[in-house]
């Protein structure tokens, strides 16, 4: 069944709609009548969100941070960091979400064999739960929309600017590598899962560092492939149960040489994405051995993910067919240079 690209282009415009300016923020090429709809959909979806909107998202997070810091300053000396697709430039909405990591200075976790000079006598999980309760109280008294139902984050919906901000309660995990190199890339975190009453170890700064390096090493085509796959996922007529993290990881594992194409060959990235998805679907050993960018977890160990990968590949392959047909009507092909 042919895709409705009029509907898909409308969805793309909605994701990039500026409420204040009352218009969608799109490239000049989007107005061109000589470019087919599926081609336009592909290349516009690959485009980054304008940096002013990314900065606006970061400001929304900083406003929340300042509120928490001020209202809890008598009890805590809070420290903040950010994570999410906004930070790695792989987001597809101008009103994108962002995560605030909130750190208490009450205690830190040390990796063995490090020994604390002043051992912490409290209960780390209970203390993080207490911090979360206090953060929620302060945020709920400041913002109209605050949701405390998520086990891993308080969700805040500020309106100026309009965003969704996840507030994640953490403590530092000081790895041996961080101690040795004194570079925050190697510093980990323990974030709270309130309902399970446990802390989960993660290394978000190393992950961000790896994705940014991948972008630099591939002429930013890594970001383009992630954006188009995320776009196809949300615009599909059926649910595709792949997370942004999983999409980032599967694209990250593509060889740099395959991604490192010139700007005028961006359409060929669809073939690169399809080839990678086929490899994951067909090669069980490869799929189950695919590691996260920082090597801390196997991404597709769950066999149920094969169905979701097949759904995403179908979307990519149908897009390739539609774009190829459009180009053929103008006596062009995917292999030719295309300026957008």
Please render the helix and strand layout as text.
Elements: H1 5-15, E1 17-18, E2 23-24, H2 37-46, H3 51-71, E3 79-83, H4 85-88, E4 98-103, E5 109-110, H5 124-140, E6 146-147, E7 154-156, E8 165-174, H6 176-181, E9 188-193, E10 198-202, H7 204-217, H8 221-235, H9 244-252, H10 256-259, H11 269-282, H12 284-289, H13 305-328
Parallel strand pairs: 4-8, 5-8
Antiparallel strand pairs: 1-2, 3-4, 6-7, 7-8, 8-9, 9-10
Q: What is the string of SSEs from the N terminus onward?
A: HEEHHEHEEHEEEHEEHHHHHHH
Mean pLDDT: 96
Radius of gyration: 22 Å
Low-confidence stretches: none
The level of helicity is 40-55%
- The end-to-end span amounts to 27 Å
Strand content: 5-15%
Shape: globular
The biggest beta sheet, please? 8 strands, mixed
The number of helices is 13
Derived structural class: alpha+beta
The number of distinct β-strands equals 10
What distinguishing features does this structure have?
8-stranded mixed beta sheet; 340 residues; 13 helices; alpha+beta
């Amino acid at each position: 069944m042919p895709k409705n690209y009029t509907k898909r282009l409308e969805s793309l415009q909605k994701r990039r709609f500026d409420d204040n300016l009352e218009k969608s923020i799109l490239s000049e090429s989007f107005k061109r009548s000589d470019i087919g709809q599926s081609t336009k959909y592909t290349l516009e979806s690959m485009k980054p969100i304008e940096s002013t909107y990314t900065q606006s998202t970061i400001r929304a997070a900083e406003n929340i941070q300042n509120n928490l810091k001020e209202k809890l300053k008598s009890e805590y000396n809070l420290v903040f960091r950010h994570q999410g697709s906004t930070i790695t430039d792989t987001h597809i909405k101008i009103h994108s979400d962002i995560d605030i990591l909130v750190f208490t200075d009450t205690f830190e976790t040390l990796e063995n064999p490090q020994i604390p000079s002043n051992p912490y006598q409290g209960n780390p999980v209970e203390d993080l739960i207490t911090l979360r309760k206090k953060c929620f109280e302060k945020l709920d008294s400041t913002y109209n929309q605050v949701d405390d139902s998520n086990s891993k984050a308080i969700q805040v919906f500020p309106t100026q600017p309009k965003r969704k901000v996840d507030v994640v309660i953490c403590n530092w995990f000081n790895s041996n590598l961080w101690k040795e190199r004194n570079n925050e890339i190697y510093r980990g975190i323990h974030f709270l899962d309130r309902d399970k009453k446990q802390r989960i170890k993660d290394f978000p700064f190393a992950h961000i560092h790896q994705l940014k390096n991948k972008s630099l090493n591939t002429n930013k085509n890594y970001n383009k492939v992630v954006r188009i796959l995320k776009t196809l996922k949300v615009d599909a007529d059926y649910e595709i149960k792949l997370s942004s993290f999983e999409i980032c990881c599967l694209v990250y594992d593509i060889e740099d040489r395959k991604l490192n194409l010139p700007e005028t060959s961006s359409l060929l990235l669809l073939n690169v994405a399809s080839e990678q998805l086929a490899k994951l679907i067909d090669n069980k050993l490869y799929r189950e051995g695919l590691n996260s960018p920082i090597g801390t977890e196997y991404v597709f160990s769950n066999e149920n993910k094969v169905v979701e990968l097949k759904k995403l590949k179908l979307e990519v392959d149908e897009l390739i067919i539609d774009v190829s047909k459009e180009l053929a009507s103008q006596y062009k092909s995917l292999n030719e240079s295309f300026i957008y």
